[in-house]
């Protein structure tokens, strides 16, 4: 009985320590009970057991991992190498994952959260403005096909950094065009927004279906800050050649191009440029050509597995003719794209 009296005297002298000790013991018991809960069978809906990988003990383990000689010791039922699932994007309580291209909530989300307005102030370009008339050979070809049209509207998917490899910068600088630049690579997009382009920009990828998707894109950083999108199921970037850089993965939201046009409240595209690393044909198939007025399309076919003939057949079925094969691109236009409405310049 003497030890009981000693415990009572200790509790009377240290009530706060006794409370802390009791709370610690209670937490340990609760964790033990939670770990021992039975797992329900597939057909037993009355037993709602927590999966072992999501228990409170494993959550604490992920926050405060146990290390032995510098190595993390995984708990039972966990896989530290498995990446977390991509986050679903939503408006309030409404999920937009898999939303159709005409969904008003999706269109409003793109308009409010994804589209970046045109830049204000001066340009911040690496090269002088007067060099772009001859710097990019495709620029001269497109300018001639469009008959030096002024005040048109372009959409360039795969816009790179907004300066190098750009097919639309000259039209913006010298022909007063407006438009939209879409780039999936986060590194290139951060460079793009510093150029001062007077167009809308968007960091996203184009969906190869008529629904929104979330895609994991693998991008390899290369010498001279070029990028390469790897893998047959990834897209929205260019593949300039062999690479030995570091491979990085990014989770991106992919939207139907028609939804983006609805968010911009425009149905006319004077020039559509697609250079998205292999899914150009799938994106073209999603376009409602009866609802969009598209005059000229330049599409990169180098990485498209379907081949050139598939592009020709698709565009011919929608009222386009092949105007000019240009390097690894095909340029299509309406039956007479030069009659497109708009002011022309010298």
Total beta strand runs: 15
Beta fraction: 15-25%
Overall structural class, as computed from helix and strand content, comes to alpha/beta
Main sheet characteristics:
7 strands, mixed
Tally of DSSP helical segments: 11
Distance between the termini: 108 Å
What is the ordering of alpha helices and beta strands?
HHHEEEEHHHEHEHEEEEEHEHEHEE
Q: Provide the spatial order of strands within the biggest beta sheet.
A: 7-6-5-12-13-15-14
Q: Helicity, in percent? A: 25-40%
Radius of gyration: 29 Å
What does the average pLDDT come to?
Answer: 75
Low-confidence stretches: 35-64, 75-86, 222-244, 338-346
Q: What is the global morphology?
A: elongated
Descriptive report:
By secondary structure, the protein is an alpha/beta fold. It contains eleven helices and 15 strands. The protein has a seven-stranded mixed β-sheet. It starts with a helix and ends in a 12-residue tail after the last strand.
In short:
This protein is α/β, with parallel strands linked by helices and 346 residues long.
Keywords:
346 residues; seven-stranded mixed beta sheet; four-stranded mixed beta sheet; disordered C terminus
Topology:
Blueprint: H1 2-13, H2 15-35, H3 56-63, E1 67-68, E2 71-72, E3 90-91, E4 94-95, H4 104-114, H5 132-135, H6 137-145, E5 153-157, H7 169-174, E6 178-183, H8 186-192, E7 200-203, E8 205-206, E9 213-221, E10 227-230, E11 247-255, H9 257-264, E12 268-274, H10 280-285, E13 293-300, H11 308-317, E14 320-326, E15 329-334
Parallel strand pairs: 5-6, 5-12, 6-7, 8-11, 12-13
Antiparallel strand pairs: 1-2, 3-4, 9-10, 9-11, 13-15, 14-15
Helix pairs in contact: 4-9
